[in-house]
Amino acid sequence: MQQKNLTLPSGCSIRRANSEDNWPIRLLVLGAKLDPTQLRWEQFWVIECDRQLAACGQLRSFAGIQELGSLVVAKAWRDRGLGSFLTQHLINTATGPLYLECLGQRLAEFYQRFGFVQVAFEDLPRSLKPKFRWSHLGKKLIRVPVVFMHYPGTEATNLNQPPLQEEI
Ligand SMILES: CC(C)(COP(=O)(O)OP(=O)(O)OC[C@H]1O[C@@H](n2cnc3c(N)ncnc32)[C@H](O)[C@@H]1OP(=O)(O)O)[C@@H](O)C(=O)NCCC(=O)NCCS
What we know:
seven-stranded mixed β-sheet; 7 strands; 26% helix
């Protein structure tokens, strides 16, 4: 598991998103062809490099669980550790059981480094199934290579943090 010494390049810093990040976040997410729904800037963390938005990612809250989503690093900043730093930060910030969906084995391996494990659709929490059902259907019907993953470490940790607003 990758927990070791994650650092950001000089000139980069992480912070919670604010309302001015709303459109830059949307553009990053759309540019990466990720799910463009449920992009509430209040749930996002961003990495700024040289005063530009270089990466974003969010924790969506559902009943009793959270989803790590919308993780994007701007093309010019990839392969310099930003995605790993943000992933570890979101794990550390999560306040309950954490799940995600990703496309393809390469991304699944990226998340496995942090301790995520693959999980069957049938074993997902009930509150998450409606959202992930479409990907599940795509996987079954047209073999979309979607992978559902669970981070088993957040159940007993990070619990003294205030819960994020629920999304029902
Ligand atoms: C996946 C992503 C966030 C990684 O960010 P990053 O800052 O480039 O990643 P890091 O520099 O921290 O880590 C690099 C590692 O990630 C792997 N990686 C880079 N891009 C990847 C990609 N598109 N898919 C899977 N793994 C990727 C590299 O193999 C590299 O591994 P290495 O350390 O063995 O060389 C970035 O490529 C991205 O924004 N992709 C498009 C959006 C996306 O697919 N997001 C994930 C949604 S589930």
